[in-house]
Design a protein that fits this description.
about 450 residues, alpha+beta, 19 helices, about 10% strand
Length: about 450
Amino acid sequence: MKSYNHLWEQFISTDNIILAEKNAGKGKRKNNKRHKQLREYRTHPELYVEFFRDYAENYFAGELKTKLINDGIKAKQREITIPSPEEVVLHNMIVNVLKPILMKGMYEHSYACIDDKGSIQAVKAIKKIIDFEDRPEYSYEELQEIAKKKSPEKAERILKYANKPHKKRHSKVKYCFKADIRKFFNSVNQDKLIERLTKIIRDKKFLNLLITVIRAVPSGLALGYTTSHWLANWFLTPLDHYIKEVLKVPYYFRFVDDIVLFDSSKKRLHQYRMAIQTILQEEYDLELKDNWQIFLISDFTDKVKKDIEYRKQNNLPIKTKEGRFLDFLGYKFHRKNCLNNKTSRITLRKSNALRIKRKARHIKKKGFANIYDTRQMVTYSGIYRHCNCFKWASKFVDRNVKIKCLQYYVSKFDKEQNEIKAVEQAIEAMTAGKSLPF
């Protein structure tokens, strides 16, 4: 295992501090004291370089400020830790140094709130493997009909492929195992995490600072710290390699503490579940929630669908299992449900669809949209444009609001705010007798 030294010099470098200040102030638009201070650090990063060097040298975890929030559509209560503006910048400085170290050896389908590995990338990856496994199989006669419509070169290749003997392919995304780790962030074993960090980080000064940040809470990792998502995701990296390399699971995805496995055998998925439960308890002091599921993913053909409808109408026992969709990351994943569908389908979760529909209706009823509603609606458009809901969007969203107009309004508002800030900076510079910033 490769170890890293001389990280403190990189940590307190001017470039790292300025980058951390800019990242910490990104997207902070509220007018409270905390956001104003972070915007100040982002606007004049050079002025605070020496301050953050001294702050990092003498940092200690003070009294924690916590807050209860209702997270998600289910309004699940979570206690988050609110860091001070200076701590936010410090955490970003740590992440900038740790990022290349933690990303090395990370499993390719391990997703979280990290760069280029967010929820949308996870959705696209799952759709890709479902489409790959659901490729249609053609008979020789069907391939001959297809070859007639192609050019002579393509027709020759198609017929050559048709003459080869083919085994019947069994889809590896037929069954799914979905599970969640119980109270993951609060249950992370700090001692085991620090022990693993000690093996790769040899710079004692930087390591002691990192341990101070981890020990800021009595147990687990602090929800609300920028470092927590990176460390939590990296903590489960050996589990990812165990599942792929030892258990040899065909398809495996993880979003922080949410786990999804695919296989063609239900029996094998139960074996994987027991193995994962065992290693979580023995190696990580964690456990799966009791609401784990193993189920058949919906997979229809026209004949199967007609057979089920006929049996329902005549009160006959249904021998064919219908299956159901995979509900993951706010989307519903369906395999192709008839022979006419070329690809799988992704639809919105019902609760998310209702929330978007109500917001669009609310804006139309008001007759205008303030900047808060506008930003929220533009964000929602980024959610539903990644799934197959064009008809739904045109019926319930596009009739009530025009997304392009809202995007233009947000862009115009931000430009005006930037111009106001530039004028304020110019006035401050003139008052202080400095050169103008432009």
